[in-house]
Design goal:
The protein is an alpha+beta fold and about 190 residues long. About 45% of the residues lie in helices and about 20% in strands. Keywords: Membrane, Transmembrane, Transmembrane helix.
Length: about 190
């Protein structure tokens, strides 16, 4: 079992206040989706069955068919290719818009949030107010690359960005603290 140094135990680990950007929000939730719905066959690569890959396969098949078809009627090829390009762009924009809509519905994510972690729990500071949580108060603690997600309920979580841990502490100190408190973050989602 990893142990914490006495310097880490004597002073809380500070995490600089920061807001979650839309790009970070999107990346975190896409990672959670990949974990929540893993691909069934282990032999296939992760990207091989994504909806984007399936869409591009159909676009390529359609483009090949219309290329052959256009040999008979060349004027129609440009129209069909434009239709497929517009459909692809609209699909990608729709996905982006849905993430943006979800992000905007969570105004507290757009406010700078600071953290002070210690063996007893974590103090979350947001909009000039501080709130202390014992480690056992969290519904779930999950880790995604570069972040620790502290869920207070099924629908609400605080985003702790590991790169903002203030020296002399490091991100590894946060992880050791969680392990020492027996609340090590899960990397799998239920």
């Amino acid at each position: 079992m990893p142990t914490l140094s006495t310097s880490t135990l004597s002073a809380p680990i500070q995490v600089a206040p920061a807001a979650v950007s839309f790009a970070d929000y999107q990346a975190i939730h896409q990672e959670q989706q990949r974990r929540r719905y893993p691909e069934q066959p282990a032999s296939k690569s992760v990207a091989s069955e994504s909806w984007k890959m399936k869409a591009w396969r159909w676009v390529l098949v359609g483009a090949a068919l219309f290329t052959v078809f256009s040999l008979v009627r060349p004027k129609q090829l440009v129209g069909w290719l434009i239709l497929y390009a517009i459909s692809t762009v609209l699909g990608l924009l729709h996905q982006w818009w849905k993430y943006r809509q979800a992000y905007r519905q969570l105004p507290d994510k757009q406010q700078a949030t600071g953290f002070s972690a210690e063996p007893k729990g974590v103090t979350v500071t947001q909009a000039g107010r501080s709130r202390f949580f014992r480690w056992t108060d969290f519904y779930s603690i999950q880790q995604v690359p570069g972040w620790v997600l502290l869920y207070t309920s099924v629908e609400h979580c605080y985003y702790l960005k590991l790169s903002l841990v203030q020296p002399p502490a490091t991100a590894a100190d946060i992880e050791r603290l969680l392990v020492a408190q027996d609340v090590a973050p899960t990397t799998e989602l239920a």
